[in-house]
Amino acid sequence: MPMKSDLRFSLPTPAQCGEMDRKASETIGISALMDRAGWAVAQAIRARFAPCRVLVLCGPGNNGGDGYVAARYLERAGWSVQVAPLAPPREGSAAFGAAAQYRGRITDFAPENARRADLVIDAVFGAGLDRPPAPEVVAVLSAARTLVAIDLPSTVNGTTGAALVEGPDYRMSVTFVRPKPGHILYPGREICGELICADIGMPEVCLEAAGPTIWLNGPGLWHVPAMSPEDHKYRRGVVSICAGQVMPGATRLAAAGARASGAGLVRISAGEGAAAYCLGAPGLVIDDGPLKTLLEDERRRVWLCGPGLTEPEVAASLPLLLASERIVLADAGALGWAGSEPEKLRGVSVITPHIGEFTRLFGAPGDDLVAAAREAAQRIGAVVVLKGAVSVIVSPDGRVALNDHASPALATAGSGDTLAGVIATMLAAGMAPWEAACAGVWLHGEAGMRAGNWPIVEALDAHLGDARAKAIALACEI
Ligand SMILES: NC(=O)C1=CN([C@@H]2O[C@H](COP(=O)(O)OP(=O)(O)OC[C@H]3O[C@@H](n4cnc5c(N)ncnc54)[C@H](OP(=O)(O)O)[C@@H]3O)[C@@H](O)[C@H]2O)[C@@H](O)CC1
Ligand SMILES: Nc1ncnc2c1ncn2[C@@H]1O[C@H](COP(=O)(O)OP(=O)(O)O)[C@@H](O)[C@H]1O
Ligand SMILES: [K+]
Q1: ipTM score assigned to the predicted complex
Q2: Which residue has its alpha carbon closest to ligand 2 atom 4?
């Protein structure tokens, strides 16, 4: 599992936040944290809005407690503030103490009050939200002109990002310590608006005690090998790609992605279709021999199987690769070949399905992408990269990285082939499968962000080398 330093990337679930709070109550105390949380909310609002009429909707838990504190600080700064309690906090709780310290105006928890305010702060439910809020709560939130959430919108599942009910969008959400998965995953990500994460001085031991297993993907969570004076092409790594006769484009894109992200050597195993590849990029090596013979070369550890392959072509190659215990990345045609029997893929190291391929293999994932991808990874014993606007990268041991370092520029045919090539290069460089997948997805995303407006897929390659250099530099800084 990742080391303690990875806490900086962690995305604790609401349940883990409960654990963190319990630990915090033994050390720093919840009231002190609540005070800093409410202060941070007031500061974030003062930095973004001119003084206006504010209504703070306060629930019965600690989220409501943060609301009372924010109300107190905004009032102290001269703003016009009212608090509308949904229900009073439990006597003796930190939120009870915060409510007692707020001596300003109180009003009804009603839609007309929300409508009259310029800005409504949602401190109804945060990490404690565990079921859909009542329609009366949604009616009040929906009446607001401008909404700011404390921690999480009261309609969003903080673990999955799912909307528990249909509700309004927020201008901004102010969370504490670390974002939660629900802030990163869609649709939660979109509902939250601008995301601010405030440091409230939570002791690191408390976050550690929460035992996070989900991280935000980025350099430092993994390390891509840098260029070294001792490099030679085999040390950088060999990527071998199974090629088909019908769709050479996909194979060529994967090969180009592998080369552009720093593979030492990329070889295409084309068998009888070799002629179609021989006039392609001159830096590629094309093999026309039988796969069985090619597998005698032990230096060819890493294989990509799937892009541009028909099911019979996969049937003729993938079982051989698995029998010879190669490190295999299965994508596209290889996933189609497995159909609805994902166990056929047992023995591969990484699979890279988009949501359609994932659904065909494992069934529809439902609202909880992370849970579905975890189950899938465990089922086949391979890293699963569930590709999308936010990609979910899961190891069979349960580690999850969420990648939002990407751009819609990547939503162009063939971009998945490029990604498969990049991940294969990371594997060939000696990275472990989950780290290689995380790195590949980040580099691909970085290339998409650098490639400008409406790039064609081939344009990504020109940015992969710089993306790799940036990942190496950033990881050193962390
Ligand atoms: N982690 C941190 O760093 C810090 C966290 N802090 C803050 O603490 C917040 C978490 O507080 P929390 O645990 O008290 O939960 P919270 O969201 O207030 O709700 C709990 C109450 O809601 C109720 N309830 C739930 N769903 C419901 C529904 N649909 N409809 C009706 N009721 C519902 C539930 O009731 P019950 O299930 O008991 O019936 C319970 O009474 C967190 O978001 C952050 O703002 C800071 O103060 C300090 C540092
Ligand atoms: N809206 C988006 N924002 C960010 N990345 C995206 C978006 N849409 C697609 N991508 C990325 O683009 C790639 C598309 O891969 P894939 O669906 O396999 O396409 P293809 O089969 O055409 O190659 C994936 O890495 C995916 O994460
Ligand atoms: K909230």
Answers
A1: 0.96
A2: 389
